[in-house]
């Protein structure tokens, strides 16, 4: 014990009689860098085993078949943490999902999630407690929303397990895919240039 105390005193004398200062280094917060393989990310959200809930996945598959240049197309269940991870660092994101707002089934609604809040009640057809709306608003709170985030919602009618999409909703798949494609083609030149 004495040897240890003597050693500590000698160390202080060598340092000029002062205790060494502790320096707290905080990591610098940086903006995430886009590392995606394409400048535009399309996310088709849904569950094909739950009737109209699969409309987002069906739209994603239709867009994938179109072979859009500079566009990465993925399918997702709609769980909020998974969505946030998918669009982390992305520059431009378009998401397609089923909604329930009381409108006529098959109605297509466009939301600019960057500039308007997304009502949580729209997506209560999801099997997840935290879904699309919660992912958007949490990303907004954390300052992690993509610069361009648009949601296309297709009004559903039935969400029972093991049923096919209702005819009117299934008929909307081609139209919502057409609108998404048109939106991609009308994006600013700086984004389209990256796709070449």
Structure, described:
The chain is α/β, with parallel strands linked by helices and 196 residues long. It has a single domain, classed as Rossmann fold, CATH 3.40.50. It has a five-stranded mixed sheet, sandwiched between helices. Helix 2 packs across helix 6 and helix 3 crosses helix 4. The longest helix is centred in the last third of the chain and has 14 residues. It is globular and about 40 Å long. About 7% of the residues have low confidence.
How would you summarize what this structure contains?
The protein has helices at 2-14, 55-65, 80-87, 132-142, 167-170, 172-185, 189-194; strands at residues 40-45, 71-76, 92-99, 108-112, 148-155. The protein is α/β, with parallel strands linked by helices.
* First-to-last CA distance: 72 Å
CATH-defined topology: Rossmann fold
Biggest pleated sheet:
5 strands, mixed
User: What is the helix fraction of residues, given as a range?
Assistant: 25-40%
State the CATH superfamily name.
Answer: HybD-like
State the domain count: 1
CATH architecture: 3-Layer(aba) Sandwich
Give the amount of beta strand, in percent: 15-25%
Tell how many strands the DSSP assignment holds. 5
Please state the structural category: alpha/beta
Q: How large is the count of helical segments?
A: 7
Biggest sheet: strands side by side, in what order?
A: 2-1-3-5-4
- SSE sequence, one letter per element: HEHEHEEHEHHH
Low-confidence regions? 22-35
Rg (C-alpha, Å) = 25 Å
Give short descriptive properties of this protein:
196 residues, alpha/beta, Rossmann fold, five-stranded mixed β-sheet, 7 helices, globular
